[in-house]
């Protein structure tokens, strides 16, 4: 049951100079967050459930959500959203494992939502690339990997479904190296695949873990541990002559072939610790969790503007004050409450229920009272008393907070850099067919724009009365907008696609646009303004955009923009 929230009312108190909200080091050190990226159907839901199972947050995997088939179409996406199941709206799942506080961050899998993924990754410090071992790299793994690389996150790789016929592990390593220029370092190495998948070698300890299938569906798997050097026992336990010899051979070969694990290179995204296993049958899942706790990075600081001149400073997790940034907002999560939530990643200090914070965009020094924040676990959103760096909290958003905003305590202003919008590739006019619905239509559109579900553009000289144009990275974003307008605001909408495929922001400003236009350089190009009145050009193809960028340098074209 969702708790009613009293939310963040504003007060006009004068700011205390220092409030000492420093986080205890022990709370920082024990936190690990992880965002999983994968192509649909590689087993992200299953893996998430199993991690929760081993973390004790779930009694039985599968209890959270029975997911029958891949849902990639629009109606499936909406169905999923409506289910409000663990995988979509939870955003972050918190659980304790041994002494660690694990934060699993959800990322949308479909490439049409890669902008959301990028925002979610802004809140993460570690990423896991989950692969289907039979398929290796797939289109959306590629797309999401690029997003991950932009954020320079340490990346772990887990090859799932080893209980089914799989590619050779060497082949998977080559694929990753050739395509991504990313060196892998096997930590868990598979013994067999398909029906003959026996278990994994832990290369850090040289202990072989041989599994039995879980007796109960959804239960934990029994495991037997044998040191690699105890070949007599090993041979008997593996009970497969060929696999036994192959294991010894592989173990020796890897020692020779593989560069040593270098956590500094992992942190830079040059090397990826590699794991093999099977989420469904639990093989290798707990071992992965153990390794992730010890190898994964604890919450990291972020660069921020702290002075009026554009000087940047590192705000580490042990900075004396509370700081955090908003990376996602969402309305109507609970149809009964019609609430709006802003998701805050805590960067430094301690969140306390009822604390007063300042807002990076507020010029008046106004304070906001964070009366009640929520932990975000599935549909069961409970109110929380404290939060620390690496945590994500949900706060009531009466409309003051937008993606990229910073909240902070203390006298010194802190502003983390905004989260850039992706360059849209799809454009369409949208309108409401019923004039009487206009108010609800506007309200819905404005809300969805605040959430960053799509971007909006208008024609150059339109002061608000002209046709509204939506811009998106992928077609599914449009479909979600239409479906949410209908479900949440009860309005129909009509979309007319526009034949443009690329947008460029004009950093040279309106004067540059006027000049180019007067010189006849913008023929066949649509001149628009974004939500903030900044010039944007729409092109029909890459080639045209590239040639204008090259020939009219004063336009200073940029593929994306950061909200002001
Ligand atoms: P998602 O789309 O990435 O969230 O993938 P799911 O977790 O829903 O899994 C997709 C399908 O693969 C489901 O039918 C799962 O039961 C199946 N699956 C997931 N992990 C494994 C695994 O380790 N082995 C096998 N054989 N099937 C798996």
TrEMBL record:
Comp. bias (Low complexity): 1-11
Compartments in which it is found: Cytoplasm; Plastid, Chloroplast
InterPro entries, alphabetized: EF-G-like_DII (IPR053905), EFG_III/V (IPR035647), G_TR_CS (IPR031157), P-loop_NTPase (IPR027417), PrfC (IPR004548), RF3_C (IPR032090), RF3_dom_3_sf (IPR038467), Small_GTP-bd (IPR005225)
Domain Tr-type G: 29-300
Domain of life: Eukaryota
Keywords (A to Z) from UniProt: Cytoplasm, GTP-binding, Nucleotide-binding, Protein biosynthesis
Biased composition, class Polar residues, residue ranges: 12-22
GO cellular component, one term: cytosol
Keyword flag Nucleotide-binding: yes
HAMAP family named among the record's database cross-references: Rel_fac_3
Family as reported in the entry's similarity comment: Belongs to the TRAFAC class translation factor GTPase superfamily. Classic translation factor GTPase family. PrfC subfamily.
Name the record gives this protein: Tr-type G domain-containing protein
Organism (species): Phaeodactylum tricornutum (strain CCAP 1055/1)
